[in-house]
């Protein structure tokens, strides 16, 4: 009997902790993690990847037109050397 009460108390404590942990009433607003400046590019072209280009030169031209290394919203220059889609060479 005593073991049943202890087990029940442990289960209830665990359920209460789970309910507190998963309480979605957090008043913090969602954090925006995108860059609003990308709206034109993404709405005009969508998210571009290296597979979307037929050559490295085409990808490089697009990259430079979109702002180059300072604004690589499409993450075409993964190693940060200013040369995009090196696998297409």
TrEMBL record:
<feature type="domain" description="Excalibur calcium-binding">
    <location>
        <begin position="46"/>
        <end position="86"/>
    </location>
</feature>
<protein>
    <recommendedName>
        <fullName>Excalibur calcium-binding domain-containing protein</fullName>
    </recommendedName>
</protein>
<dbReference type="Pfam" id="PF05901">
    <property type="entry name" value="Excalibur"/>
</dbReference>
<feature type="compositionally biased region" description="Basic and acidic residues">
    <location>
        <begin position="32"/>
        <end position="42"/>
    </location>
</feature>
<feature type="region of interest" description="Disordered">
    <location>
        <begin position="23"/>
        <end position="42"/>
    </location>
</feature>
<dbReference type="InterPro" id="IPR008613">
    <property type="entry name" value="Excalibur_Ca-bd_domain"/>
</dbReference>
């Amino acid at each position: 009997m005593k073991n049943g009460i202890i087990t029940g108390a442990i289960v209830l404590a665990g359920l209460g902790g789970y309910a507190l942990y998963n309480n979605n009433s957090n008043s913090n607003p969602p954090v925006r993690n995108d860059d609003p400046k990308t709206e034109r590019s993404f709405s005009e072209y969508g998210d571009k990847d290296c597979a979307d280009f037929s050559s490295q030169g085409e990808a490089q031209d697009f990259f430079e037109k979109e702002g180059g290394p300072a604004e690589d919203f499409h993450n075409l220059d993964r190693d940060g050397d200013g040369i995009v889609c090196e696998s297409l060479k």
